[in-house]
Amino acid sequence: MAAVADQVLIYADTERSPELRHELPVAIGDPFLYAEQNGTRYVLTNVLEIEKMKKLGVETRLPDDYGIDELLKSGKKPAEVRNELLLRACRDLGISDAAVPYWFPVDLADFLRENGIELRADEELFDERRRAKNEAEIAGVRRAQLAAEAGMQAAADMLRAAEPNGAGLTLDGEPLTVERIKVAISQAFMDNGATSDDFIVAWGEQGARGHDTGSGQIPPGSPIVIDLFPKDRESACYADMTRTFVVGEPDEEIVEWHRLVKEAVDRTIEPIKPGVKGRELFDIACDIFEEAGQPTQRTKEPGKPLDEGFFHSLGHGVGLEVHEAPGLGLLGEKELVPGDVITIEPGLYRQGYGGVRLEDLVLVTESGYENLTKFPYDLAP
Q1: Fold observed for domain 135-371
Q2: Three-point CA angle 341, 345, 350, nearest 5°
């Protein structure tokens, strides 16, 4: 069940605010006021957005309802006009003590509070609202996942066709670089109705640095971590998946790491169902890696950062943000709920050498789970 509050206030646009996009699944680039009063939804917007709001069944108010013409003639600055309009709207709608996202504009919050409207930043409320994805969001995640797999296939095809030449791989007589592969992946995203500002194609020691997005010509025999997180254009929902490839003969250590990481994927996905805590799944992965002599966050020396072995969490929620609740790490005490979409992404790394990571996207169902990722796990592309 979605988290609720008697009164809610958001001032944002739906292209940058996942909290607002969840409530109003349409693309609107200019900020506007969204309010809830005992279950009734209201917006204060402009005439350009009236039809969108009618289709969503939202009560619409316009600046003309609150004296915009008078305010424009008053000599007030634009921000002052905006603040006064929003104050008048809040008073009219009966908003007196509202929950707001943690990023609610400070200047607007100060003005509303000075004029008697209480605001409470409640990050958890808005996070919990978005966890159980609705049908449109799940459909968007599925489309984004298809785009991710198309991008991964484009990368795998290029790597499979590559040939070693001196210190690096070549394709069609030209150096095979991260940059070339990223162009092909981006095109695959576009062909499948998705987009991404950037993503990870990191070989060798780059792949051990976590979020290094990668660069340069790819050498043979090196592990290549490809982590893709495209956003579906229609819904603004993300997917997230990772595979690791080696062109040529991989080191025995990489082969063993890949075996352990794949075991961790299998064994942590199997128990997924409503009521299971993210920390429980994280502990399963840590057990596997610690038994193999690999460090984890559970065994790290207090006060010293861990950057080798299994040094990150097992995963996270995915939806209107690529990283959102719930967490699957040391602090993953929230129970999974039907409609959660989570990643399972164990990995092993050594600085200066490389890493192996595999990542699947999983939907929590009423009785268990559905693995949304269909791409093979093979080291060979």
Answers
A1: Creatine Amidinohydrolase (3.90.230)
A2: 160
